[in-house]
Model the fold of this input.
Amino acid sequence: MENKNNERIFSMAFAGVYPHYIAKAEKKGRTRKEVHTIIFWLTGYDENGLQKILENKTDFRTFFAEAPGINPKASLIKGVICGYRVEEIENELMRNIRYLDKLIDELAKGKKIEKILRTE
Done:
């Protein structure tokens, strides 16, 4: 991935993409609560933290930089998203963004939440 495109993604407001995560999940019969569960699991944010991110229109760079903690099991997330193998993405920020994309994708594809959160 080229740096200019990365920079465009990194500077996007999380609040701008969040409704798309919700819509993708709900369109497939999943819930906002499940999307939040995924976000909280990956980043360590809670409901209050997420609300602040959305209200402040925080960009992806800051969203992940200030995350309470990326889940150590995130490295178990494998597969292709947006044409890239997530486990092979070298840039840590881009890899974290794609981890989130991949988890939302798995939710929309009907995977059980336990499998998505790598607890099974």
